[in-house]
Amino acid sequence: MRNPHSNGEATGENGFGDGVILGLDGGATSTVCVCVPYFSFGDRFPDPLPILGRAVAGCTNRNSVGETAARDSLEQVVSEALAQSGSDKSDVRGVCLGVSGVNHPSDQEKIENWIRDMFPSHVKVYVQNDAIVALASGTMGKLHGCVLIAGTGCIAYGFGEDGKEARASGGGPILGDWGSGYGISAQALTAVIRAHDGRGPETLLTSTILKALGLSSPDELIGWTYADPSWARIAALVPHVVSCAEAGDKISDKILVDAADDLALSVKAVVQRLGLCGEDGTASFPVVMVGGVLNANRKWDTGKEVSNRIIRYFPGAQTIIPKV
Amino acid sequence: MRNPHSNGEATGENGFGDGVILGLDGGATSTVCVCVPYFSFGDRFPDPLPILGRAVAGCTNRNSVGETAARDSLEQVVSEALAQSGSDKSDVRGVCLGVSGVNHPSDQEKIENWIRDMFPSHVKVYVQNDAIVALASGTMGKLHGCVLIAGTGCIAYGFGEDGKEARASGGGPILGDWGSGYGISAQALTAVIRAHDGRGPETLLTSTILKALGLSSPDELIGWTYADPSWARIAALVPHVVSCAEAGDKISDKILVDAADDLALSVKAVVQRLGLCGEDGTASFPVVMVGGVLNANRKWDTGKEVSNRIIRYFPGAQTIIPKV
């Protein structure tokens, strides 16, 4: 096979005759696929790396949108990125896929198999949970420490010096990810329903959420909630919960405090299982925290709240919220 | 039109020439349709009423199984019951539908419209929430008092002497029906995940639920949970939670205590809004309690726990658990 990159040249239809690599990043809301030229190990990489094609599709987490929709999104985004780059499937040398959500081996395997079905058998496929990608990006590539992701879903992931790994949360909305964007929003919706039917106290969330969704009564929230089962749609209500908390609403405040407790507890569980904090509990280790829930707001800063709790547990923890 | 029943005679292909009535009962797990002969008002009803056809299909709650599946189940069960009775759609004079689940007017309307689409416009359609059917059956037809249903879902419904109505709970799993069978089971699954990843204490639920589902690790629960989104499948784990509580498991006990609190709170909210307990809070009124969650078990009797709480709130409450 030709390898024009070994002498720094580019040839072929797309200008990179030695084939392409696809990078896929699958989040709960969307999936991004970029197509970059293939370089042999040892080649000098151009900086910046030329992006030959880029496409965006819907969610590829099968636990959220179902197997068929997840697979369709994957097929679509790959085809579009390839078409943009002027390549086709036969040009693909490898696929690197970062996936969000549930990290059970059988999930990874499923996605890996979908990709393998799409390409000839010689194409190399790498699947990695996005938590791992986030940790590596926050620690300059070193896989040691803990990463907490709190977006639509949430997960805490840890890596010990000895190569051991541990995870906490990440079970999705039915299995108690209360610190996730989905969890926060579901509790806010529940608080509105409870205030409406007399089981709970009044809350500013009622008028705020109804207005945001263009609904006239809390009864209509039920139809709204079940009309579309995608998790990201519900999680998108988080900013309203934050704004209510900032306006002094006690119910919203409690939901966010509970979420911060839950997220910090997930980190604590991972750190303890891996012994990242050392025998006396004071060893230094990084905790990279990413995701929309952890973003700073005007007054309520969930990232800071979680960080404070983690440092209370482990004085040696170095919490890092990467600037995006 | 012929009306052979006015003289007690039956004619026509199915032996009841004046047409048929369909009775539909839609629960979270299944939908039953019976086909009975039509009798004019004033006719003497034969006792027992002859059942011309009976069919069972899947769930018709669109919030649980989605709109297409719910509608398909409805079509299927109607066709089968009619076929069994030797009738066809043109024989149908009226349809009485008792539906479970979310009771917002738009839900009722949707189902009513489905049925109307199935039949010619002269066919009378009555849609009623199953809570109302349950109260009437527990109070010998009188619509006064409160009904609590706790099966796969849960809902409390109340009717005042003045014709006023109120509801609490019934918002489904995302909107905090924690006293429902689904709510109880989801918390049990969450407890297993939390014990597994180090966020929560060990519980007997782990070995019990894994064994019941034929799984080898709590990690596999994630895939199991999201493989099939129907609520009834998750709610079916309730007996395992009860057996663990009966065996002394503290986590299971707490889940069931919380569920009993939540169910009693739903009744309390309805009673207070309607003033069923009178001004001094001691007036007598019936509370009919139905559904699988409230069934007595060996030691743990959720129905009795809920009943005790209701009577603690309202000494005049007459709790009734109809024998099925």
From TrEMBL, chains A, B:
The segment(s) forming the ATPase BadF/BadG/BcrA/BcrD type domain are 22-323
Enzyme Commission number? 2.7.1.59
Q: Where are the transmembrane segments?
A: none
The terms under GO molecular function for this entry are: N-acetylglucosamine kinase activity
**Which stretch is the leader sequence?**
none
What stretch or stretches form a coiled coil here?
none
At the top of the EC hierarchy, this enzyme's class is transferase
CDD domains attached to this UniProt entry = ASKHA_NBD_DdNAGK-like (cd24081)
Family of this protein: Belongs to the eukaryotic-type N-acetylglucosamine kinase family.
Name this protein carries in UniProt: N-acetyl-D-glucosamine kinase
